[in-house]
Design goal:
The mean pLDDT is 90. This protein starts with a helix and ends in a 54-residue tail after the last strand. The strands form 2 sheets. Strands 3-4-5 form a 3-stranded antiparallel beta sheet. Strands 1-2 form a two-stranded antiparallel sheet. Helices cover 28% and strands 5% of the residues. It contains 15 helices and 5 strands.
Length: 342
Amino acid sequence: MKSEFVQSTHGKLGCSNCHGGDPAAADKEKAHAKRISRPSEAMEKQCGTCHAETVKLYKTSLHFTTRGYDTVMKAKSGAKWPEVHPIVQQACHTCHASCGDCHVRWPKPAGGGLLNGHLFVKKPPAESTCNGCHSGRVSADYFGWNTDQPADVHWKKAKMDCMACHQVKDLHGDGTAYPYRLDRTTQPRCVDCHPQAAPGKSPLLAHNVHGDKLQCNVCHSVKYTNCYGCHLGKGAEPELDFRIGLNQRKDRPYAYNLVRHIPTTREMLSAKVPDALPNYDDNPTWLATFPHNIQRITPQNKTCDGCHGNEGLFLLKENLDPRYPKANLKVAVPRVPPKLTK
């Protein structure tokens, strides 16, 4: 613990105010009886006494509830959800972030430990807190950790950290219990900072010609990390891939967006619950994704035919593994846009 902490606002509250125990006891064991090692897990009782409005909002946030896991697994398990739910809670929900995981210590997936001698930080350091949970995919792409792949231009050129785009409402929540991350109205949009790139308003022909048909990343991302490292167990290595698929969300205008494969299998929970995922074939495992490795110039946007006629960029029927859901057929592109030059 740093000496500065004792004189800080939180330090002046005293240890027992947050951590419990008996401050009057002279005996070490008695003083530490009923000690609370992670006070912000009970954030209403601890943090909420001073930060009531923030706690009220955060209680419903996806950052805290990780509700997106429930939404996905409930769709796959259908009538088996009451049996599957406890298993999801045991596994997926262990990664939720409490107040302290961002503002006081390294998060649990990163091993814990104080960030700065118990001093509270108003703006969490991305390299410690965000990376602690999101290093597998997002950080590897954004900071350029993948071999032969550049860092995101926002980091490389301007050293913009996570909160440059993901601001307070996006992290603490806005009080709405969104079922899935793509349902949030607080999501950052490229045109918020780049209005000149909006379809019909751009000096670049490519922006206007494609209109709303393309997600920005289709032209401005490069190969990105897929999910094999986590979902295929110990020893599995992440793979880099780049695939354009058909947009499946009616609230998005795109015809095409980038997709990432999440290799959940039909039998993944069978050891706990027989036939746990009866709706498995109804839900694709190729899902819309937003890689954090934006580049101004990419192999596919250098020329029109960098994308048009380039089958290697698209998720095609022949790319689909028959072991995975039939619903993936809806995501596959039936016909690659033809070359524009002879």
